[in-house]
Amino acid sequence: MKIITRSPGETEEIGLKIGNILKAQRGATVCLYGDLGAGKTTLIRGIALAFGIPERDIGSASFVIVAEYETTPPFYHIDLYRVERENDIDDLGIWEYIGSGGIAVVEWAERLSELPEDAIKVRMNYVDENSREVIIEGINEKDWHNM
Ligand SMILES: Nc1ncnc2c1ncn2[C@@H]1O[C@H](COP(=O)(O)OP(=O)(O)O)[C@@H](O)[C@H]1O
Ligand SMILES: [Mg+2]
């Protein structure tokens, strides 16, 4: 599925729709790919909103690699931007969050050494100042259109 968004708000709406689909599942992993500024964190703000997490609570990577929210199911925002090597990632213990029955959303997911089989993959590409391309893999189009 390929979508063009024309503003950060439109990207958040796509995220909210993904989040609402995830709510029907018990656990889920969403892997995000795309350069700095592609809109990964913006999309996650929308996903998080579906779980009742206010947008302002979702931040960009500083020193925090895993931000945990005590929602039901628990929500984990994982940002691997500051992690250099796969080995370091395995040392962080993030496999306790991914595939744990919670919702794990992972920025810079290309740095993971492996992925759960049913992971949803979202690639984001810069188009121009206000537009981004969002390519979603792993959500069935029928579920998408029924939302
Ligand atoms: N259509 C759009 N979708 C998402 N972000 C956009 C869009 N247009 C402009 N932007 C801007 O691009 C930046 C995206 O930043 P962010 O979501 O932190 O990206 P990333 O997490 O991929 O580094 C924000 O400053 C946002 O306002
Ligand atoms: Mg980000």
List the helices and strands and how they pair.
Elements: E1 2-5, H1 8-23, E2 28-33, H2 40-49, E3 66-69, E4 75-79, H3 86-91, E5 103-107, E6 120-128, E7 131-137, H4 141-146
Helix pairs in contact: 1-2
The protein binds adenosine-5'-diphosphate and magnesium ion.
Adenosine-5'-diphosphate binds next to helix 1, helix 2 and strand 7.
Notes on the protein architecture:
This protein is of the alpha/beta class. The protein has helices at 8-23, 40-49, 86-91, 141-146; strands spanning 2-5, 28-33, 66-69, 75-79, 103-107, 120-128, 131-137. It has a single domain (2-146), classed as 3-Layer(aba) Sandwich (Rossmann fold). The chain is 26% helix and 27% strand. Strands 1-7-6-2-5-4-3 form a 7-stranded mixed beta sheet, covered by helices on one side. Helix 1 crosses helix 2. The mean pLDDT is 92. The structure holds adenosine-5'-diphosphate and magnesium ion. Residues 5-8, 10-11, 34, 36-42, 60, 107, 130-132 line the site of adenosine-5'-diphosphate.
Uncertain runs: none
- Counting DSSP H or I runs of 4 or more residues, the number of helices is 4
Top-tier CATH class: Alpha Beta
**Outline, from the CA principal axes?**
globular
Tell me the domain tally. 1
CATH homologous superfamily label: P-loop containing nucleotide triphosphate hydrolases
SSE-based structural type: alpha/beta
Structure summary, number of beta strands: 7
- Rounded mean pLDDT is 92
Radius of gyration: 14 Å
CATH topology: Rossmann fold
Distance between the termini: 15 Å
Name the helicity range: 25-40%
